[in-house]
Write a structure and sequence with these properties.
The structure holds two protein chains of two kinds. Chain A has helices at residues 2-6, 14-22, 26-47, 51-68, 78-96, 141-144, 147-158, 162-173, 178-185, 189-212. Chain A has ten helices and no strands. By secondary structure, chain A is mostly helical. The longest helix of chain A has 24 residues, at 189-212. By secondary structure, chain B is mainly α. Chain B has six helices and no strands. Chain B has helices spanning 4-10, 18-21, 25-29, 35-47, 49-65, 75-90. In chain B, helix 4 packs across helix 5 (49-65). The radius of gyration of chain B is 23 Å and the shape is elongated. The chains are: A mainly alpha, B mainly alpha. At the A-B interface, helix 3, helix 4, helix 7, helix 8 and helix 10 of A face helix 2, helix 3, helix 5 and helix 6 of B.
Chain lengths: 216, 91
């Protein structure tokens, strides 16, 4: 982590954004709230029990950001700094609620190595496909990329364990880099990747069931 | 953790099978495989239509997930925040 801080390169536009916030620029604040709000809710939901409490934590975080922005030193990205504040507050709230920390379960990443990406029954004894995947390229594009299919993906993500849900949301919905996700969630590189892999594999399975089911 | 690679190497098998390949798709897409492992991955996919489809499905999955519109903060929470912001400006 310290190495990362030493070589930290400020994202483009960050200095301007920080200056705008320090100058009490309301439009800049609103734009940032809109941009980061969904991911912040996601991360908060990993630690607290309800959406209402998560919204509370997000609000508290923004207040802390406003009062702290003059002291922000620019040694990490603004986004990482905001999410660290968020994660700390959400953790405290979750502990008060008596919830166990979600990342105690990340430790189980190793122990859960039996969790398979594809139902093992679909492979032959020699390790080759017995029941191979269908060909999605034959599907009409309107069906493959339609609203209904995206909704299936969304529901599959909602059904994931919290940590997997947070990782796939930040990486694939929001387009964060793996390094940012690791920094904010305090995950090792390999754990981040394992969680992402499990999440993507499960979403693929849900899509397969939807797209290749007999009827829909 | 015994990685799948350790297990594969332990078996002394130079090639990958389909059941092993599906566990490595994210490592491959993230670009973290060593050059020789990446080569084995690509050689298998190049010769296996089913795994080609599978990798394609994973790419499509990622693209579809990228189209999801995320849950935003409620309007109520946003207007409270805006109030707080204006209060902070007045301080």
């Amino acid at each position: 982590m310290d190495d990362a801080a030493d070589t930290f390169v400020e994202p483009e536009g960050q200095a301007e954004l920080v200056a705008a916030l320090r100058a009490r620029d309301e439009a800049a604040f609103v734009a940032l709230v809109d941009e980061l709000g969904p991911s912040m809710l996601r991360v908060a939901r990993m630690y607290v029990s309800t959406r209402a409490v998560a919204e509370d934590v997000v609000q508290e975080t923004w207040l802390a950001v406003l009062t702290g922005i003059d002291r922000f030193e620019g040694r990490s990205s603004l986004r990482t700094w905001i999410f660290r504040i968020l994660a700390n507050r959400a953790k405290t709230r979750g502990e008060r609620e008596g919830r166990s920390l979600p990342f105690s379960s990340v430790g189980d990443v190793d122990g859960e190595s039996h969790e398979r990406s594809v139902d093992p029954g679909r492979f032959l004894a020699d390790g080759h496909w017995g029941s191979p995947p269908g060909d999605w390229s034959e599907l009409p594009e309107a069906r493959l990329l339609g609203k209904e299919t995206i909704e299936v993906a969304h529901r599959a993500i909602e059904a994931l364990p919290e940590t997997q849900r947070a990782v796939i949301t930040m990486r694939d919905v929001e387009g964060w880099s793996s390094e940012e996700v690791r920094n904010v969630l305090g995950l090792s590189e390999s754990n981040q990747r394992v969680l992402l892999h499990r999440a993507r594999s499960k979403v693929r399975r849900a899509l397969e069931a939807h797209l290749e089911g007999d009827t829909s | 953790m015994t990685s799948i690679w350790q297990r594969i190497r332990g078996g002394g098998q130079p090639g990958l099978t389909c059941v092993e390949l599906v566990e490595l798709v994210t490592d491959y897409l993230e670009g973290v495989l060593s050059p020789s492992d990446r080569d084995r991955f690509e050689r298998h996919v190049g010769a296996c239509e089913n795994c080609t489809r599978y990798v394609e499905e994973m790419r499509t999955t990622i693209a579809l997930v990228g189209r999801i519109e995320e849950d935003a903060l409620s309007e109520e929470a946003k207007s409270e925040l805006l109030e707080a912001f204006r209060g902070w400006v007045r301080e």
